[in-house]
Amino acid sequence: MRVFQFPNALRDELRALHVSIGFIPTMGALHSGHLSLIKKAKEENEIVVVSIFVNPTQFLKGEDLEKYPRREQADKRVCELAGVDYLFYPNAEDVYEKDEVRVCAPNVRGYILEGATRPGHFSGVLTVVMKLLNIVNPTNAYFGKKDAQQLKLITLMVKQMFMDVNIVPVETMRDSLGLALSSRNDYLSAHERTEALKIPSALKKATSLVIAKEYDVETIIKEMEAILAPLEVSYIAIVNREFVPLTKVETGNSVILVEAVVGVTWLLDNIWL
Ligand code: PAF
User: Fold this and answer.
1) Beta strand ranges found along 92-164 (DSSP E)
2) Percent of the chain with pLDDT over 70
């Protein structure tokens, strides 16, 4: 595995290869969810590139930028063992200049749900993803469905900016009890981990209601709230695959999303129905 710190050096190296490139952008603290993205990328491309960069522009003031888990040596080893060909590991100064051109998240879909609780977050995500895609110029880029709104906005950016990359959604990985894997799970105590299981339970309940032909969004959300209590729920929402809020579930075209705070950690999860 070759490790690059500087964007232009990596870009020049990859441009000269003329092979299909699978790319997985990450913020590190790699877990089995990331490994499933790497595995898929390895199956579908000649070479695989991973980036590890805790992107400062997607953290709001007072969020966990400083304490976000950083495990440089362990992450490098994980990438090596997973058969990654190139690792991009820049510093913030290698990626950002002062007085920058930025990408703006769309006014509506970038500022609902996660975008409402973290205004500006998605502009930071889209800006760094635009930069990373331009540096790596991949054939396919892999993103987890756990961050469903992020995935939607990146797909929109690629389409609307006429970018030449295929965005590949990958199923959410869960632990044996059903909790969606996330680097932020590291923050949870044993008790909080148990509490966090209310999130997948609420989504399971929503699924069983829809299977029983209960499509009314208000009713489903009430049932989910009852399961999630007493967690602090940032939002429960049911939207279509374009992220337009629904009043009735449309089977085959809906996403049910939850964000809840467990202790001081906010956790996201969703189900695509
Ligand atoms: O999902 C993430 O880990 C990040 O938002 C991403 C896509 C790597 C951009 O920093």
Assistant:
1) 140-144
2) 100
Residue 197, burial from CB neighbour count under 10 angstroms (0-12, 13-18, 19+): middle
User: How far from each other are the two terminal CA atoms of the chain, in whole angstroms?
Assistant: 39
Distance 145 CA to ligand 1 centre (A): 12
CA-nearest residue for atom 3, ligand 1, is 26
The mean pLDDT of 137-151, rounded to a whole number, is: 98
pLDDT at residue number 262: 97
The domains found in the chain, sorted by start residue, are: 2-170 (3.40.50.620), 183-272 (3.30.1300.10)
Catalytic status, residue 34: yes
pLDDT, tens digit, 9 for 90 and up, residues 31-57: 999 999 999 999 999 999 999 999 999
- How far does residue 52's CA lie from ligand 1's centre (Å)? 9
In residues, how long is the chain? Answer: 273
The torsion angles phi and psi of 122, rounded to 5 degrees, stand at -75, -25
